[in-house]
Each structure stands twice: as C-alpha cells, then as structure tokens.
Batch of 4 targets.
Target 1
Amino acid sequence: MIVVYILIGVLVFGILIASHEFGHFITAKACGVRVDEFSIGMGPAIWKKQKGETLYALRWIPIGGYCAMAGEDTASEDPRAFTNQKPWKRAIILCAGAFMNFVFGVLVIFCIFLSYDGFYIPVLAGFMEGCPYESAEGLQVGDRVWSIDGHRIYEVDEIGEYLSQGGDTYDIVLIRDGKKVVLDDFYMVRQVYDDSGKAYFGLRPGYGVEEATFGKKLEHTWDTSMYFTRVIWKGLRDLIRGDVEVEQLAGPVGIVEYMAETGEQSRSFGEAITQILLLAAMIAINLAIMNMLPIPALDGGRIFLLIVTVIIEAVTRKKLNPKYEGYIHLVGMVLLLGLMAFVMFNDISRIVTK
C-alpha cells in the first residue's frame, strides 16, 4: 500500500502546485496580460500543447511550475505585457497564486468536515484538588475556553501554552450554556502542584463534543484554517530564532514520504485519505504564507519590490528598467533552488539511512 500512498502524495503535491500557478494564470488572463506559457513541474516536458498565444506544458520534475507572462522581468513594447500594467493589477496577479492555495486548503478542510457528525472542542474537564478558580463567578466544569488574552483557543494544549505566557491576570473568554462569559483581569497563579513538584494552575483541560451542524462545519473549517496558519507562523518564528535547524526542513520528497507514512499508520484506507487530505490542506496554507514572504523570487518579494519601484518612480519621475528587478529575482531564484537542493538531499539521505 505504501506505493499507493506515495503516488497519492505526488498527485496531491502536483495539484497544490497547479492550483498556485492557475491562480496567477486565470488572474493574468482576466487582467488582459499575455501569458506565453503555463507549466506544471520543472525540467523537460512530458506533454505540451500550444493553444492560442499560450503554451501549456507538463514537465518531469514535480517541484514547481510557472506562469510565464510577457514582459515579466524585461521591458516590452507590448501593451499587454505584465510590466506595462498598472501597479494594482500587477499586485493582484502576484497575490492570486497564494490566494488560490489558501482557498484550496480551506475547501479541502470543508469537504472533509462535510462527513463529520460532531467536533471536539477544548473545554475545562475538571479541576485538581485545592484549585481556587472553580466558582460561579470564575471557571466551571464544561466551560469551553474560547480565548486567553485575545488568543483564540483551537486545541486543548493551547490552554496551558497561553496561560504559561502570561503574568498573574488574564482576560479569558468562555462559552457557557451557549453564551459568552468574559473574565477580565482574572487572577491566576501557579499554586497547585503534583507529586513531581511541577507547577499547574489546577485546571484539567479536556475535550467536549458539539454537533456538526452546517454552520458549525463552516465555523470549524475556518478555525482549522486559522489553527494551521498559527502553527506555520510559529514554525517560521522558531526557524528564524534558530530553535529549528535548516536540516529539519522537509521538501517535496520529505512531504511525500510523510504523506505515505501517514497513510500506512492509519487504521483504514478511508482514514488514510482523510489524514492525507488534511495534511495537504495544511501544506496548501503553508505555501500561501511562504510565497507571500518578502523574499526575492517569491511572490511576496515581487510585491515588495513592486512597492519600492512605485515609490522610487514617484520620487524620481523616471521609469525604472524592469531588468534590474529581474536580476534581483534571478539571484533569489538561484539561492532558493540551492536551498531546495540541500533540503532534497537531506530528505533522500534520511530515507536511505532509515
């Protein structure tokens, strides 16, 4: 079965790339920009077809793709060239790929949740002996923890995480009997201990269950998307801080391997597909976020340089040659491809040495 899951992983990864490039493609067409090539994958072409002004291609290496627009990085006399469009049009086209990835991730989550009968929600399942916070005016068993100090709580482990980051008082929002209960400046200190001497707040977080109505399916779809977004930002923060090493990053090979392992560890084929699709949704949202970072060669880098170019042209009253921006993106692309090669080498090494 692992071969089946590997093939599914490769297919899913290809679809994620296709959805991103399709976002650029369809938006460029809608904005009247000439698209010379729409390609999924990199390297030699497996299949290609010229239709109208656009060459459509499927290439061998499933690690990328591109929507090649006329005049994307060079000056052009064609009024339909990308560089000859108004800045707001160029910005929309550049944002469209990440937007499509995010929408794809949200739709996948929603489709999965359509079959659900109920959802687990983070609640207070009980209190340790001696906990002083259980009262009619404070916390009660069964309270759904909605937020702590403005942070929405999506998972049980986030309750302890955000309490541990605060001081002695917290702004806590609960859902009790269908109504919001707001506890402003609620006093809590780590004063209840277990036998090991570890400090607790005296709470026993757990999971409750709520019925999966259509409205709740929409709500949990959005909540899950936001939870994935939070996890991705935390991972990026840890990478910048150095808490996560570059060697721990996973590329296409590592992602497909993880999808295959997820499928193998599932109790049934149906559960395997569900878990793989949830992972695909998270990767789609991850691609949306990462592509909007202000790094040359990524969409976010192009938008950043677009803003810089508009400001410089407004001050100098002179139009900049887009080839200089092209050089910056070329350097960024070389560095990005180098990082991808390094990550892929690590992925393959890890698989071989298992």
Target 2
Amino acid sequence: MSKGNSKRGVTRRPSKNSSGDLEFVQLLTPQGEPIKHPDYSVNFTDEEYRALYRDMVIVRRLDAESLSLQRQGELALWASLLGQEAAQVGSARALREKDMVFPTYREHGVLWCRGLDPILPLKLFRCVNQGSWDPESHRFHMYTIVIGAHALHAVGYAMGVTKDGKVGSDDGEAVIVYFGDGASSQGDVAEAMSWAAVFNAPVVFFCQNNQYAISEPVERQARIPIYQRARGFGFPGIRVDGNDVLASYAVTRAALDAARHGQGPTLIEAYTYRMGAHTSSDDPTRYRVDAEVEAWKAKDPISRMRAFLTQQQIAGPDFFEAIDEEADKHAIELRERVLAMPDPEPVSMFDHVYPGGSPLLDDERAELVRYLESFESEGVR
C-alpha cells in the first residue's frame, strides 16, 4: 500500500465521532465522506482503494458461508467477524511482509490479507486437525483459543526481534497481536503490556473493541476507555474508528513504523461492533436490543467504503457486481472443499502434542488402538 498524504477531497474535520461523544481517529464518515486528520492520512491509488473494498467483501462472504456450514452441522463452531472487516483488513494491509501476526480465533480477515488459505481455520473448527499451519511461511501464528494467552507469546517474540537486532531502522521488523475487549480484562494481557513496556518491545496491541465480551458490555469491564490503559504501562494508546478501513490502516501503519524504529509498543483500540453473535453457540438477542444493532448497521464498514468509492468516482456498478460475483465463487469453492475433507483417523489426535513424545501419551494411544481393534474383532464397523 502507498504512503503519504491523501489527495482525495477533504470536506470537514470533526473532533468527535459520528455518535457525537467519543473522540477517535476517523478518515471516512459513515456516509463515506473523507475527513482530514492532522496526524493520520493515506495516499492510495484508485486500484488500492478498490482492493480494500474487495478484501472486505470477500472476507464477509467467506465468513457468512462458514457460519452457514456450522448451522448445517459441518463445523463444530464458528466465530464470526461480521462488522469488524474494516478493522481487520485495514490493520492487516498496513503490515509489511516481515512483520509477525499473533491472532485470536476471529481474525479471518487478517488471515486472508496475509495470503493464507481460508480453508485452514475451518479445518480447526471442523475438528479434522489441530488448526496448525507453518507460522513462518506467512508470518501469521496459529489461532489461539485460550483468551489473552497469545499476548504473552507476541511480546516474547517481539523481545526476540529486538535481541536479534532487527529494530531501529526503516527496515526493522514489528509484531502485532489481536485481541478483543473481553481479553483486555485478562491478566495475561496486562502482564504482556507490562513486559512490552519495560523491554521496549516492538509490538502493537490491537484491541478490537466490538462492545461485548460474549454477553458482557465493555462498560462493565473497564472504568476508562481501553486505549487509555496504555498510559499506566508507559506507552501510547490511541482509539480509531474500527469501521473505517482507511483510518484503521493509517493508525496501524504509524504504530508499526514506531515499533520497527525502536520506539516501543502501542495500544490501538479499534472501536467497532460485532453485528452477529459472539460465536455460533451464542444468542445475542438475550443481552442487546435490536435498536442498538440497527444503529451500528448504519455505520457498516463495507457500505461506508462503497459510498466513498461511488462519491469519488473510483468505482461503479459493474465493479461492485464483479466483486460480489467473485466473492460468491470463493464461497462456493470453500464450501466444496469443506465437504470434501476426509475424516481423520482417531489416533491422529495424539500427533503433534509433544515434539519428543511422551510415555503417558504413548500408553493412551496404545489403549485407544486396542479399543478400536476390539470393534473389528467383533465384526463391528
């Protein structure tokens, strides 16, 4: 992606967000109007603007298909990113090839932008493998189900980057770790921030504040805005409109550049909204009202970018139709590949647990093998 100041039309510069009460970095209004900000900007080509829209549309379509597969019994669970596409795509496109990503279990948009096969997390949620892939191949760590634990992994990795002398210049490396507002209440995240601050680790903490930790609203988790917690650890914190893909890109790019130049960690709070359920096991109608959901739908990140592209005459109906068709093709292919997945052998659950094996694990494996063979001896299949 390009850098520099925006060349697109500037209309106004509000001091508060569209709800009128929370200050954050915003470069596009919910109506798709560009805004000038004194510290953050983008300078994309028309093709790059269109590419951001394409990313978000495809990611949303793949997410919807995955949820449908779960509802039809083809996946055990699915954690939807509906409504968070701009935060994920914008921040992911700000990464450089050498930067390292530590996701939770909802970063399907980041995974897409890093060039990983979108089938990979579905193998985890279909329970055909342990959700493993080579983190180094695309600089993208495996999904983490344990809430907040990966923040410590990210900081440890970032400390290693410093020890290897890979910070302090424009060619330096940076690390980003994604988590939600619920995970921000975990002790692991607080400990990670403490270590990152003390060791000046080149890490960006990217909190997607989607307003709910499952059913717990964010105001019951924190007495101050999440981004302000960084002040207590001694490094910068900033809140960005997480439904604005341009602002998400600009803020993340600046934080990553600061990290790679040896300026230490940054906490980004991407203020967004989970328009769907926490996971496919959740019923959000039990803890939030329809009016709230409808209000956030008016700030939809994809609709916002589409309005911008239309108003700026960067894209027209033919482009949008073509992207929708491409997204459908990706979704159909994903479905076909999921349904074609072979069931794993039961004993494969013991693979990759310990790199050097374990006597106890070997005994358990042998016991399972004997149990399965007992059915064969009795003629049961």
Target 3
Amino acid sequence: MDEITINIVIADKSYRLTVARSDEEKVRKAAALINERIKSYSAHYAFKDMQDLLSMTALQFATSTVKYESELAYRDQNLGQQLNDLNSLLGEQ
C-alpha cells in the first residue's frame, strides 16, 4: 500500500495523518468540509467553545450518514424486488 503523511487542520488544530495516497484528496476534502461547517455554525449559532461547534458538526454528519444509509437500504430492497419482477417476466417468455 502506497502511504503518505499529510498535515490537515481541523478547528484550528493541526493533525499529522498517514493515509493511502489514493485517499489524500478525499481526506483533505473532508477536513475542508468540516472546517466549512464549523465556520457556518460559528456564524449562525451561539456557542461556548470549540467543542460545541465540533459536536454540532459531528451530529450533522452523523445524521446525514444515517439518512443516506436508510435511503440506500430502501433503494437496494426496491431494486431487488424490481429485478425479481423482471426475472419473473422473462421466465414467463
């Protein structure tokens, strides 16, 4: 596995990470997205400290993940049913 060491900054704190070279862009994009959300929350909501902003950001991302997992499960189930229906139709021919 081709790994590299990168530095990213999240919430004004630097982190040194070792990632697969193929994942570097994804990790940097994810860190940028986190920082954008933190900035947005800090501009629109009252907060006591950075932990409040990080918690709101984590909750937002976790909620999105749960939503997308639910939608994916529904699509998979629906697609499976449609494939079974098509297979039945083809079997009749």
Target 4
Amino acid sequence: MNYFFGFILSTTLLTAQSFQSVVQRLEQTPVENRQAVIEQYLNSKSGSPIIEQDSVVHFVLYGNADTVYVNGNLQHWNDPVLLHKIPCGHYSLFYRTFIAPPDARLDYKLIVDGKDITDPHNPYITPSGFGPHSEVRMPKFISSPYLVPRNNIAHGEIDSLAPLLKIPPPLNQYIPVTRPIKIYRPAGYDTLQRLPVVYIHDGFDAINFAFVPRIIDNLIADGKIRPIIAVFIPPVDRNDEYIGRKRELFVKYLTNDIVPLIDRLYKTEQSSLQRAMMGISNGGHISLYTVLKHPEMFQNVGGQSSTMTPWLKELTEEQYRANRISPQLKLYMDCGRYDIKFQSPFFGNYEFLQMNREYSDLLSSHRIPHYYKEVNDGHEWANWRERMPEMLIYFFGTQQ
C-alpha cells in the first residue's frame, strides 16, 4: 500500500479550517477534484492524528487501501472501529473522530487491509509487550521528567544472577522453577550500607519497556528517594505463577529463596518497612497477594492495572479479620480509565477499571490505608512507567 500524507509544497496553508469542514468540502467536490483539496489541507498538518480543541481526535490515513480500522485504548483493544472512506482519485482519505480527555495518553494501531501497522505519519512510537504501538499525546498530557535519560548524573549497574537448578517434570509441579534475575545496584554502592529493596515482577519487561533503572537513577540524583536496590524477576509460567494454580508455590519461592538470596549477597536493609514489591496487571496481583500474605517481610506494595481475583479478596478479608494488616503498610494502586475489558472463562465479563475500583472500595470499607489513582490511559507499559516515579517516592521518598 502507498501512504501519502500531504508532502506537496503549497503556498496556501489551510490551518484555519477545521477537519470536519474539510470533510464536508470533499464530499461536495467531484471525486476527480478532491486530491488537490485534501493534499493541500494535509500539507498544513504535522502528522497524524489531528487534534483540535484539546479533546477532538481525528485518526487519519490518506493512501491506497480498501479498509482501515483503528484499534487501541479508546476501543479497549477489543473492538476495532472502521474508518470512514472518501475516495479522492487515485488515493482515499480514511478518518474517524473521537473525543478524549485533554490530558490523555493513549496507544493505538491501524489495521490496513487486515494488516496491523503503526501509524506511518505519527512520530510517537512506544514499545509495548505486544510490539511497537503508535501513541496519542493529548495537548495537556505531561510526561514524567524522570523518564528522560540524563548523561550528567551517576548511573547504577545491573548484575545478573542465574541459578543453575533446573527441575524436570513432574517435580516442577511441586518445586519452584528457578530463573535468571537481574539486580540494580545504585551508583556508589561500595560506599553504601543497609539499602531498601524493591522486587519487581515482569522484571525484564520493566527494564526494557518501563526504563526502571533510568527512573531510579534520576530519582536518586534529584534526591527524591534514597539509594535503593531493585530486583527484576521474570515469570516462567506467567498466568499460573501470578494468578493461577502455582501462585502459592511462587510466593514460597519469593519469600523462601529470592529474598534470603538477595539479603545474603547484597547490602540490604532487612526490615519489612524497607522492602517493597510491585508489578503490573497479573504481576500487580501477585505483588498484592504476596505482601498481604507476608506482612512480616513486606510493608510496601504497588499494583498497576492489577488483575483482581477472588483469592486476593479472600486473603484481604482473612488478614483484616486476623488483624495482620499493619497501619504502616503503604499500598499503592493505579488504573487507566481506558484499561482493557474481556471475557474470561474464570471471571466472566472482566473490566480492569471496575475491578480495581471495587478492590479500592473493599480496602476503604475496612479502613485499610491505601493510595488509589485513575488516569486517562490504558493497559500499557507507556502508562505504567509514567507513574512508577510517583510510586517509588511513595515507598522510599526522602521527605517522609
């Protein structure tokens, strides 16, 4: 397919015209004369999507295709929307208009004749766990300054640990599967003592897609947090370990193997008040589950767009009734208003936003202190990394 987006030089710029007025003009113009109209307008724009009045978003593609859909956070990634088509001679204009909050940040992709692509005329591409996505940054969206790489500050180092033990089936149903992990050590580590530790699930993705080491470097450099150690733990059997039948086994692996190993090899502060665990989606679930189950080891936990299961709610109720939830617990949650919705064979009609709201309400009903935030974003690494600095400051901030 050929994609064309108004790169013809023009002496007349049509920036004053609204997109809808251009569409109306096209519809009133004979097909053979439309090309000049749309190319002159598109030449006055810097790219796609076209945003007007802070909250009107026009997804636009101009080229040679039969059908174009848009799918992304605005569609909760499960209901692609067909773009309208206006033939313009050799090419066609495809467009669809949505309303989004002025401070939203949203992922999307185009589906052109059945093929998923990023928007060829959008300069903002963001990594995700499902490949690159195009990104909409609404006019009032402000990205965290702690995501920006800095060359003029000290940087921590990443160690790798690779346990050698490999458990063959069927024993791996009863013995935790070991895995390589990565450990962030802050700059000046050799001169430091008794460091807080944060354990991060989906750990390697958190490095690659959320830039967590960079965030920690920047926070430490600005004096927002004290130096910390970060342990990045990847899953082996993600669903079963985080939300399924292996979750108890995995919790034992974390508490009996990983935490003691880190305490033995690194200069950690071995206090529950100085240990944190965090994760996204299913990783948020296992973080909440582990910390609530083991308050003697952890008093800081963060879940972003967390999966909420009956087991987590039951554990919360049990620990509340047993008076095992400390008033010193720092529990952080956030979720996107455009988070995904899906049909689950286990949970039925599942909506992340609604389930996170309900869990926050459950905590509030028991007067369990926690921080809960909703943002105009979706179920994406680009969303979660924006709030990771805030969460780390909540756990380890120097102004406490």
